[in-house]
Amino acid sequence: MAETRHKTGATADREIAISRVVSAPRELVFEAFTEVRHLSQWWGPDGFSTTTRAFEFRVGGAWDFVMHGPDGTDYQEWISWTEITPPERIALLHGESRDDPNAFESVLTFQPDGEGTRIGMRTVFPTKELRDEAVEKYHAVEGGQQTLGNLAAYLTEIPRSGAED
């Protein structure tokens, strides 16, 4: 089940933290975040889909993609990885484009939790106003929880569909 925590400290008013335990080994969960063949199957809130324009998973590499909303709206997205520590941690910068001044930083952590994996997603926005806009206008907390829910559902389907090949 997803959970949202409220942080304290210097970035508390600019951040969102979400976590969820998924029923899959850490290595598989990490792989689902690092290979486009997996990402394109589950990334995004409920009803969204993605079209990848470019994908190069390495520090300094980028994922350039479009998220298609259920109402037909397209959202230009760009992610660049700033740290990759398999299978424990990924840090990234996420915006609409490479030069987006409103891009935000996210850190994903993957920790064993029983037979599953606890995923932590901590996102820090450049300003409190951008954080508040993401939460209130774009429903970032719910969207993040839905995204992790879509990942959890996808991971349960991999053995049945043979998508791991």
Q: What is the strand and helix layout of this fold?
A:
Elements (H helix, E strand, L loop, with lengths): L2 E3 L9 E8 L3 H9 L1 H7 L6 E7 L6 E7 L5 E12 L3 E7 L8 E10 L2 E9 L3 H9 L3 H22 L4
Antiparallel strand pairs: 1-2, 2-8, 3-4, 4-5, 5-6, 6-7, 7-8
Helix pairs in contact: 1-2
Describe the structure.
The protein is α+β, with helices and mostly antiparallel strands and 165 residues long. It is 28% helix and 38% strand. It is built from four helices and eight strands; from the N terminus they run E-E-H-H-E-E-E-E-E-E-H-H. It has helices spanning 26-34, 36-42, 128-136, 140-161, and strands spanning 3-5, 15-22, 49-55, 62-68, 74-85, 89-95, 104-113, 116-124. The protein has an eight-stranded antiparallel beta sheet, with helices on one face. A hairpin with a 3-residue loop joins strand 5 and strand 6 (89-95). Helix 1 crosses helix 2 (36-42). The longest helix has 22 residues, at 140-161. The chain is globular, with a radius of gyration of 15 Å. The mean pLDDT is 91.
How far is it from the N-terminal to the C-terminal residue, by CA?
Answer: 28 Å
Structural class: alpha+beta
Number of strands: 8
> What Rg is obtained from the alpha carbons, in whole angstroms?
15 Å
Defining key terms:
38% strand, 165 residues, alpha+beta
Short description:
This protein has 165 residues and is of the alpha+beta class. It has helices at residues 26-34, 36-42, 128-136, 140-161, and strands at 3-5, 15-22, 49-55, 62-68, 74-85, 89-95, 104-113, 116-124.
